[in-house]
Write a structure and sequence with these properties.
By secondary structure, this protein is an alpha/beta fold. The protein is 40% helix and 18% strand. It contains 14 helices and 18 strands. The protein has helices at 13-31, 46-52, 60-69, 121-128, 177-190, 207-223, 239-256, 264-271, 287-296, 308-321, 359-372, 375-390, 396-399, 410-419, and strands at 3-7, 38-41, 71-74, 86-88, 94-95, 114-116, 133-139, 155-161, 170-172, 200-202, 228-233, 261-263, 280-286, 303-306, 329-333, 338-342, 393-394, 406-407. It has an 11-stranded mixed beta sheet with strand order 2-1-3-16-15-7-8-14-11-13-12, sandwiched between helices. It has a 3-stranded antiparallel beta sheet with strand order 5-4-6, with no helix packed on it. Helix 1 packs across helix 12. It is globular, with a radius of gyration of 23 Å. Bound molecules: NADP nicotinamide-adenine-dinucleotide phosphate (NAP). NADP nicotinamide-adenine-dinucleotide phosphate binds next to loops.
Length: 421
């Protein structure tokens, strides 16, 4: 019996977690005689602040539990946008201190759970635990309303680098002494001129960071029998970061997987464009091009490996194409630890309303079950979500786009999924 730690999350987190847990437990019970998950609550964000106080939004106990049990699942956590000194963890409102002190109450919702601004709990978790691959499968579920004619043609899994690029988090505010120092250095030592009123951000992309991500993507393609891995980059402009990502990706594919892959160039030079059997095609696309490719020729793409920022945009765009973020699952995976999570945020205006779609977190649970090798329970949940949506018994987000659908609460939708198993 695996012990799996969970973080409920802020905002809508508790609503969608309750349903997710019930659905996963029901699927396991229906699929196996003896298997069971032992859930263990751990805390981050608002729940940590309530339990531990003292600005402990990411307690050591939480990190230690994830390190010990290796697999964990979480709901969304509040992330301040920036520029303010404090953030309310109940409604995500940002505000400045009063006379240099922490406000006693949130100016928007009156909550007392206000904490000094922080960068991002999600980013911290990924960096501290070295969860370097953010994995997001995107496919259409029958019945889900969406903006394209053939949504079933999109079936991709995005491997987005999680620790470098903009997630390195190296940024200096305009007019800070650090920003000024870098601007001076660039001028004096590199003969590069940057406007003196600039904020500065640094975008590192390394050989080791790139290769371990691309390796994970190719391994996945081999295990799951996928036809191609596409490296998405902006190498035409950023040659030594994004362009290098492409070059190092090809280098890794050729040196470690030579017998199993061919590159697109080899496909045309040696095989006249006809794909040989039992090979995985390694290709690359420039990021802006990729956004139209995924809309116009979605079935030509399967596994995608990309640096952080491209992956962020691309996974949301793909999710929108098949009906939105409410149904997009995700996982952050390193060499030892896997943390599964909903891809949307805390949607604070819906907190405690039992209203939103829990599918993103439930489907992250499905990814977790597959990671454990519990495929029967995973299949059961996926089929049942599809049946529930096809029957037009859905939450508000889908109901408002469907004709003659029945609007269900989060908990009612979860009960229907269990009923339809
Ligand atoms: P958001 O929480 O994702 O919500 C934006 C909108 O998306 C919602 O107002 C709602 O649309 C829709 N939505 C989100 N989740 C939904 C669900 N389960 N079912 C149905 N609709 C859903 O984005 P945000 O308002 O920009 O961010 C709020 C907070 O979450 C911020 O602090 C942000 O930093 C944080 N965040 C956390 C994570 C994470 O923990 N992984 C990820 C992203 C953002 P309608 O208004 O149209 O109904």
């Amino acid at each position: 019996m695996p012990i799996i730690p969970f973080i409920e999350g802020d905002g809508i987190g508790p609503d969608i977690w309750k349903v997710t847990r019930a659905v996963i437990d029901a699927a396991i019970k229906k699929s196996y005689e003896k298997r069971k998950i032992v859930w263990m609550q751990i805390h981050a964000g608002l729940s940590a602040l309530k339990k531990y106080g003292n600005d402990e939004i990411l307690p050591k106990d939480t990190l230690n539990a994830i390190r010990e049990f290796k697999i964990a699942i979480k709901g969304p956590l509040t992330t301040p946008v920036g520029g303010f000194e404090y953030v309310c963890l109940e409604c995500a409102a940002e505000q400045n201190g009063i006379n240099g002190k922490r406000p006693a109450k949130c100016a928007k919702c009156g909550s007392k759970y206000i904490t000094p601004s922080f960068r991002s709990l999600n980013v911290s978790l990924r960096k501290i635990l070295d969860l370097y691959a953010c994995i997001r499968p995107v496919r259409w579920f029958k019945g889900v309303p969406c903006p394209v004619k053939n949504p079933e043609k999109l079936d991709v899994i995005i491997f987005r680098e999680n620790t470098e690029d903009v997630y390195a988090g190296i940024e200096f505010r305009e007019s800070s002494k650090e920003a000024k120092k870098i601007i001076d250095f660039l001028k004096k030592e590199m003969n590069k001129s940057v406007r003196s009123d600039s904020g500065i951000g640094i975008k590192p992309i390394s050989i080791s960071g790139t290769k371990r991500l691309v390796r994970k993507a190719i391994d996945y393609a081999i295990e799951q029998n996928k036809p191609s891995v596409t490296l998405v980059h902006k190498g035409n402009i950023m040659k030594f970061t994004e362009g290098a990502f492409r070059d190092w990706g090809y280098e890794l594919a050729k040196s470690e997987y030579r017998e199993k892959i061919i590159t697109e160039q080899e496909l045309w030079q040696k095989f006249d464009g006809k794909m040989p059997k039992n090979k995985i095609l390694i290709k690359d696309r420039i990021a802006d091009q990729m956004f139209q490719q995924i809309l116009l020729r979605p079935d030509e793409y399967s596994v995608i490996a990309t640096p952080n920022l491209n992956g962020d945009y691309l996974s949301d765009a793909c999710a929108a194409q098949v009906g939105g973020l409410g149904l997009a699952p995700g996982a952050n995976i390193g060499d030892e630890i896997a943390l599964f999570e909903a891809t949307h945020g805390t949607a604070p205006k819906y907190t405690g309303m039992d209203k939103v779609n829990p599918s993103s977190l439930i489907l992250s649970g499905v990814m977790m079950l597959r990671f454990l090798g519990w495929n029967e329970a995973a299949d059961l949940i996926e089929k049942s979500i599809e049946t529930t949506i096809s029957n037009k018994t859905v939450t508000y987000d889908l109901e408002r786009q469907m004709e003659n659908a029945t609007r269900l609460r989060t908990s009612e939708f979860g009960n229907k999924i269990i009923e339809n198993m």
